[in-house]
Sequence to fold (206 residues):
Amino acid sequence: MTSRVAIIVRSCYPKRMSQESLERYDKFLESLSNQTDKAFKVYILCNTLYGKNGLDSNMLSMDTISQRYKSLSVNYFDPPKYTYEIEARIDNDDIVSSQYVEKLRQIYNLTDYHTFMINPIPIKLDITTGKYYEHEQGYNYEGTSMFCVLCQKKEKKHYIYDRPHSRMAKQVGAVVMMEAGHTFLVCHGANQLSKITGLEKEWKEQ
Fold:
């Protein structure tokens, strides 16, 4: 059986999304629409994550944007838990490479563990200059990144948002690293946690 893939996206905003935020969401969906492997579903979490309530108007605005991408299955409700073999978490202002889903499935198929995390190494993208930088955090087998992916080949008892991303490795156990170049953390003025500090090394695709 082909592994089922769900990309589950945090999009809960208590205030109206700015035009810039909606434009970043558009770029995010564009990166998903360019996937070489298109066998996946997208779930947008607008109201149910960590007890937060988002505005319905934001959901309507995002849905208007998603209608442009006819090849994508974008759902504005929670995914059915314990259903997907591969659950990927991502924020709605970040982007991924066109081989992202293909690479996830490849790692899944080549890994012997029944339950494990895929830990993509994120690259920072400065939205003002278009330059890429290595992430100073240095995510590894113990601390999973904000792009972490849950894989469950047999029994499904975990959910990708059970815990904050850095603690998912401890909950699940086995971790398989994914090389840099597939997940990009977009740094912009509204992002208070991820910024370009000037201390990062510039990253160039190999």
Remarks:
- The two ends are 34 Å apart (CA to CA).
